[in-house]
Fold this protein.
Amino acid sequence: MQWLKSLIFVIYIYLFMAVWGIVCFPLLLHPKGARWVCGVYASHVIWLARVMLGIRSEVRGEIPTGEVVIAAKHQSFLDIMIIYNAVPAAKFIMKRELIYTPFIGQYAWRLGCVPVNRGKRGQAISKMLEDVKKGSAQPGQLVIYSQGTRVAPGDYKPYKIGTAAIYRETGWPCVPAATNVGLLWPRKGILRKPGLAVVEFLDPIPPGVDKAAFMSQLETTVEAKSNELMKELGFDAESHLAARAKQSV
């Protein structure tokens, strides 16, 4: 039964994305309109996941405001929805190809998300900062997924140095964010499981920390807190990772 409800849920949220995006398309004329449309969608997905699937969502820690970099753990679509719904003005670092995706691309562009080409991230960030200074773009919370992709619970991918470059170029504080959502809403597959999905904002890293120390602090704090959150759901990520490493030897 849970699998069938999950299937209906998955089909519905993507159909709703298309219909809602088309109906509200005129609101793209103004960034505030686009932000409202996306906010309604995120809230609706979070609410429906709770009512239909038993996935409750919780945000912990001090919610970032003002101009900050949020360096987040990324496990599934749900952590995007929770972060967007929690902070005042999220905009995401995204692959340039996504800007051409129907609905998602147009709204992301209007929100001020930063599309980047590999190797040209610095140029994109510099342009964003310049646009904010000129008043042609809104300030906000810049979200980057430091591992570069969704990472399943118990898997490991190294943290990419691009986060340190963005932190340095913006000169903003960096707020690490941990999560356990992948245990309930996986990055692949249909089945969604009931439980408490958490995104936790951690203590900010102030501007000016050197690259090596910044990357070490970011990875250590995010991984440790994410492992704690996953333990709350009965999953020992460290043991799982150790067992996989032993098998691969």
Q: What stands out?
A: Residues 2-243 form a domain with the Glycerol-3-phosphate (1)-acyltransferase fold (CATH 3.40.1130). The chain has a mean pLDDT of 89. The longest helix spans residues 31-53.
